[in-house]
Design a protein that fits this description.
The complex is a heterodimer of chains A (347) and B (593). In chain A, the strands form 3 sheets. In chain A, strands 6-7-8-3-9-10 form a 6-stranded mixed β-sheet, with helices on both faces. Chain A folds into 2 domains: 257 residues, Rossmann fold (3-Layer(aba) Sandwich); 68 residues, 2-Layer Sandwich (Alpha-Beta Plaits). Helices cover 33% and strands 25% of the residues of chain A. The longest helix of chain A has 16 residues. Chain A is of the alpha/beta class. Chain A is elongated. In chain A, a hairpin with a 2-residue loop joins β1 and β2. With 593 residues, chain B is mainly alpha-helical. Chain B folds into 2 domains: 255 residues, no CATH class; 221 residues, no CATH class. Chain B has 23 helices and no strands. The longest helix of chain B has 38 residues. Chain B is flat. The N and C termini of chain B lie far apart (66 Å). The chains are: A alpha/beta (347), B mainly alpha (593). Chains A and B meet through β2, α2, α3 and β10 of A and α2, α5, α16 and α23 of B.
Chain lengths: 347, 593
């Protein structure tokens, strides 16, 4: 069974090519967690609750340094999938490998548990402990060495150093969420699983959270994150998966997803006769369709990437057309997702 | 300054403890605060002061008679005599009795508060962790469950421990000033600690198992333990399994205190309550051994009982903590539990008239028959059977998963012999398999212990015992099969239906027969062979009726087993098909790299 997912080395990312850790980040991922195999592999992962199949036959690989965004409507099975991946729920069927080794939460997998950090949606804290005591407690549970230094580094990273003596109950929601994240990464896991980490946070808190995620990625962590704030995911995810009714219906790098599913448009404003512009566009292979938006503006349905749009602009300029605006846009992740849902509902 | 130094020492101590057990450190950090400590210590000190003052005011101040005087006792109350001849000299005071009275009150309070308080705190803490969702984080940490649970056990009731430590100096001081043997006081402490271990582990386990009670666990757990402790304070219950409850109450070990004391006569007249044997504990026997005749035997048995059950609960607790989705007890552990429980049940049940002969070496036992013996043993047997049904039953999904995996396994192996061996191994040892065979083996273990007990007595017909046991075993096995069948039938409320079915079968049928005027000795009395009143029915039933009863029960077992196996196989097969159906895989970019 293991041979089915024999080690695959990502061409883009290898341990040697990982960026240097940023300030506040672990100086290095523990050697136990540092391998060239996928950080997380699941095959045929299925979860049944009585007659309901919450997660249905999911295959997935996450490679070191990858940020995988999991999106889907409520009840799609995202949380259940994540809980199974981290050992918080037992799969009905399927296999999970962490760093190439089979992982079962009900067996003695304490070494592998050290490679996982999990921040659930509703993250409870201990009211009777201070921020420092809370993190110290989890650092001890995970057997973190050089605890004191590590705690200061982590507090610095999540910007809670000044609050270290405060009771956890006195923190704001955003601070609590950052404390939860600090707890999740205190033991320097190679795999970080975040379930709706920014839900209920204000824009500033979300931005702070995004920055922390980027820093962690730079440190080489593999991150699986689910969120309903798709603009955030589009900001830092390398890969996106769409779940629906327990199935993983899409899974691809973000750019590929944009290319494949995002409708690209170019809005061109000309000072000259639009008929000349229309004629020039008609001869371009990358132009799918064109529509007059106003007397001076044309909307072009376009196939290609940003480079292709540049080529198009250059060819129009070479034809001496009096262009005064050339705006290349594409549908964002949210639109792609909504379209996807609409399509599913219609079909 | 002192506060700061103390805080630093405490911090340093907690740091060292945290290196050994982080969970213990966390529990102590959350609880060892000045306010909490004062809340634990002030009531303890007030209580001690109150108890001492209660008896100080009773000391003789003027005659003619007082409880603590040492003169003659013409009317049940000693007359007071002065130490000297002058009117100013003090009274002769029975100080050992004075201290014994204080000891009695202190000892009465301690076990109830410590045991019940600890049970409540532990169950409440764990149920709160479950409801809050933090327990999963502890489960997911690389720490062993044992470490986490030990941290809870030692840390959660820490304020109770502090209160206990605060009361011990006075308790020991008072004990030393009576003329009781101090070794007995130490033994009382030993029994108390063992009882705490037992009930504390049980409380944690109960909080995990009864998750569905949603925060009611601590109240229910405390109530149940209070009932057990009170049952242990009962009056004479010789030759009954109810005697067992006495071992769980540490106060019973105090009943031996006044024995062999220098001033026993003097104290014995005046002592009351728990410091005297007013509940026939002198005739406490187990496996015909006169345990109550000797304090050391009693203390040793009480400690062994509590620690043994503490260990069982601990094993169950560790398992439940690590694998909350599996059956409550593993098949392997169930055999040990049955053996352990049967040894206690049989040990207490086999000596109905032990009071007459256990303590008299010249006494020749009578000839009790198997029916009478089994009738007294049957409640314990039924309770153990029902308990095993609840503990061993896997979840419906686990049963279906087992059937599915078995189906997958069958495809890989074609040898019927290997398949049969693996099936038997599964049924006897594997947790998610149907527990019928394991249930049967547990019954055999209990029978073996019972037969051993009968053998020790040597006067009971083993044949009768076999008949009754066989009928009981089949009856309970059929109950288990019904419960299993309901479990996989996908009824939403199958648990309640199962309880209803068991109650209807166990109590409803005998009651219905009773209402119809059918008695065991009358015509139609053989019908009781199909009920839990089989021992009484065997007494009057003829061979033919018993053979028919056996045949009917066996047929029912076969029928239920067949239908259950078929249905489980169908479910396993359909799920296997459903899950193994190939469907187009989603695009997996990471696989394409």
């Amino acid at each position: 069974m293991v041979s089915e997912i024999s080690p695959q080395i990502s061409p883009q990312i290898s341990p040697q090519s990982w960026p240097r850790p940023a300030s506040g980040m672990p100086s290095e991922i523990p050697s136990d967690c540092l391998t060239a195999t996928p950080t997380l592999s699941v095959r045929g992962l299925t979860k049944r609750f009585q007659q309901k199949i919450a997660v249905n036959d999911i295959d997935l690989d996450l490679f070191p340094g990858e940020i995988y965004g999991l999106i889907g409507p409520n009840g799609a099975g995202k949380t259940t999938l994540m809980e199974m991946m981290v050992g918080a729920a037992m799969p009905t069927l399927g296999e999970i490998w962490i760093d190439g080794q089979p992982f079962r939460s009900d067996q003695n997998s304490s070494r592998l548990q050290r490679c996982i950090g999990f921040l659930p949606d509703d993250y409870p804290l201990y009211d009777d402990l201070s921020v420092w005591q809370y993190l110290d407690y989890f650092a001890r549970l995970y057997g973190v060495r050089d605890r004191r230094d590590r705690l200061y580094d982590i507090l610095e990273l999540v910007q809670l150093t000044s609050k270290r003596h405060s009771l956890t109950t006195t923190l704001s929601r955003g601070m609590k969420q950052r404390l939860g994240l600090a707890r999740t990464i205190i033991h320097q896991p190679s795999l970080l699983v975040l379930d709706e980490p920014v839900s209920g946070l204000d824009p500033v808190a979300r931005m702070e959270f995004r920055n922390i995620i980027r820093t962690l990625q730079q440190g080489g962590m593999t991150i699986l994150i689910s969120s309903h704030v798709l603009s955030d995911l589009a900001d830092f995810c390398t890969t996106i998966g769409i779940m629906e009714l327990g199935h993983l219906v899409e899974s691809a790098p973000l750019e590929e997803l944009y290319q494949r599913l995002s409708r690209q448009q170019i809005f061109i404003v000309s000072l000259g006769d639009l008929a000349d512009l229309e004629a020039a566009l008609a001869s371009q292979a990358c132009v799918i369709s064109q529509t007059r938006v106003s007397e001076r503006e044309i909307r072009v349905e376009f196939e290609g990437d940003a480079g292709g749009a540049g080529e198009l602009l250059r060819s129009l300029m070479a034809a001496n057309l009096p262009l005064c605006q050339f705006n290349h846009t594409r549908e964002d992740l949210e639109t792609i997702f909504l379209k996807h849902l609409d399509h599913k509902q219609v079909s | 300054m002192i506060t700061t130094t103390t805080a630093k020492i405490l911090e340093l101590g907690l740091d060292k403890i945290g290196d050994w057990n982080p969970q213990l450190m966390r529990e102590l950090q959350g609880r060892l605060r000045w306010r909490n400590l004062l809340m634990a210590l002030i009531p303890t000190i007030l209580l001690q002061t109150f108890i001492v003052l209660k008896y100080v005011v009773k000391l003789p101040v003027e005659g003619p008679a007082n409880r603590y005087c040492m003169g003659p006792t013409p009317n049940g109350m000693p007359l007071c005599e002065r130490l000297g001849t002058s009117a100013a000299s003090g009274w002769q005071t029975n100080w050992p009795l004075f201290w014994a009275d204080i000891l009695k009150d202190l000892s009465l309070v301690v076990p109830w508060v410590v045991v019940l308080g600890g049970v409540y705190l532990l169950a409440a803490d764990l149920s709160k962790e479950i409801r809050r969702g933090t327990l999963n984080f502890l489960r997911m940490s690389p720490q062993q469950g044992r470490q986490i649970l030990l941290g809870k056990l030692l840390g959660v009731p820490i304020l109770l421990y502090v209160a206990l430590v605060a009361i011990l100096p006075l308790h020991s001081f008072v004990a030393l000033h009576t003329d009781f043997d101090f070794a007995k006081i130490l033994a009382f402490y030993g029994v108390l600690v063992a009882t705490m271990v037992c009930f504390y582990a049980a409380a944690l386990w109960f909080a995990l198992v009864a998750e569905a009670l949603q925060g009611f666990q601590p109240w229910l757990a405390t109530g149940l333990v209070a009932v057990i402790l009170m049952a242990g304070m009962q009056g004479d219950a010789q030759g009954s399994v109810l005697n067992w409850a006495r071992l769980f109450n540490p106060l019973n070990s105090l009943r031996f205190l006044a024995d062999n004391t220098p001033s026993k006569d003097n104290l014995g007249i005046m002592l009351d309550g728990i410091l005297t044997d007013t509940h026939g504990l002198r005739h406490f026997a187990w496996w015909y051994a006169p345990i109550g005749a000797d304090f050391r035997s009693y203390a040793l048995l009480a400690i062994s009982n509590a620690l043994g059950f503490g260990l069982i609960y601990w094993l169950l607790l560790e398992r439940r903590f690590q694998s909350p989705a599996t059956s409550i007890i593993s098949k392997r552990h169930s055999y040990g539990l049955s053996l352990w429980a049967a040894v206690w049940f049989v040990g207490f049940d086999l000596q109905q008239d032990c009071a007459d002969y256990c303590f008299d070496p010249n006494y020749i036992p009578g000839t009790p028959n198997a029916i009478w013996l089994f009738a007294s043993f049957s409640p314990s047997f039924i309770i153990l059977g029902l308990l095993l049904i609840a503990l061993l039953l896997p979840t419906p999904q686990a049963l279906i998963d087992w059937a599915r995996y078995r189906r997958q396994g069958e495809r890989q192996s074609d040898r019927p012999h290997a398949q049969l061996t693996r099936l038997l191994q599964d049924l006897l040892w594997q947790d998610n398999s149907p527990p019928m065979l394991a249930f049967g083996l547990n019954g055999v273990i209990v029978l073996a212990v019972l037969a051993l007990g009968v053998g020790v007595q040597g006067t009971v017909s083993l044949t009768q015992l076999w008949v009754i046991w066989g009928l009981y075993e089949l009856l309970l096995l059929n109950g288990l099969l019904v419960v299993q069948r309901l479990a996989i039938a996908n009824f939403t409320h199958w648990r309640w239906m199962a309880i209803g079915a068991l109650l209807a079968g166990g109590l409803g049928v005998p009651m219905a027969l009773g209402l119809l005027g059918i008695q065991t000795g009358t015509s139609g009395g053989s019908l009781f062979l199909f009920t839990l009143m089989a021992p009484q029915a065997v007494e009057v039933a003829n061979f033919g009726a018993m053979a028919i009863a056996f045949a009917v029960q066996l047929s029912l077992t076969t029928l239920l087993t067949t239908t259950f196996s078929r249905r489980l196989g169908q479910l396993g097969q359909s799920e296997w098909k459903a899950l193994s159906e190939q469907r187009p895989r989603p695009r997996l970019a990471s696989l394409d790299r």
